[in-house]
Amino acid sequence: MKIEVIKLFKEGPILLHIGLRRMDRTSITIHSDTLFSALSNSLIKLFGNREFGIFEERIVLSSVFPGLRGISRDILFLPMPNIPLKGENLPEHKRYKKLQWISLEALKELIECFDANSKSINSELLKGLKFLNSNSLVTRREFEEIQEEVNFLGTILEPKVSLSRETQESNLFFQENLELHTIKTSSYKKLIPFLYFLRIKDKELDSIFIPTLNLFIEEGLGGERTTGKGIFDFYEREELELPDNGDFEITLSLTLPRKEEVDKLIYYQLVKRDGFIYYQRATGLRKRTHYKIREGSLVKSPYLGENINVSPREDMRVISYGRSIGFKFS
Q: In which order are the strands placed within the sheet that holds 14-16?
């Protein structure tokens, strides 16, 4: 399956605020429905509503994931699969339970240890994987090029002051932001972080997607964009081949299963989605609360997911993205 990788770069640290219904917390995962909403707002600014129908009907996106440049090949990180590990000889077993990210190449090695009968990973076969840090797993080759454990992704606290409209009293609080920063290793290797997402190739969409992407990197992603958060300087596009066939899939987007797909869920976590509607401006209206399946879930293939209307009003259509890109395997 032909997939397009869109890599997002910024000179200097990448800062984002992905709200969790409160200003002092940020999500470390930029879900696919957040990405879809940001792209949709850029699309409507350029083309109005006339192109949104085909965009919503055809676009298939992943969530936004971190990447790292600075060795022979860019490392693309994906969510650690929600698959249990079985076996007694796995060193540092507790560290595996805390993992959030796994490189694409490491994922390919991991699923070779998958036992379809027990639907688990045979940990006794895991020999070629290394910890890049407490949250991330890479292949031995990738680690040997970097030569040491490094951490390029985390959260920082930014002091903020709120002012009461009624009493004019000020209140100091700290806002949490997601930060990706450049690393220089002890051997003077420079590692540059970036963000990326996947899109199923569709040439018929390129005439509206490329202009939308050009505006999107300037408009930004997430909250606090007026202070420069979520803004990118440039992007790169390249192709990636993902497996077409398999009995199972690891989901790479936040998905909403169709009714006939619910029994395909094997290992998964639910994510609550709500929040206010932003349609070129703040509307003050809340989306209908709904739940989706987290990235990294294990499902039976084929698994497509669907978009839904989460508007609280009958005269307004607000689409919440729920389609799936999956990493297929048997």
A: 14-16, 170-180, 153-163
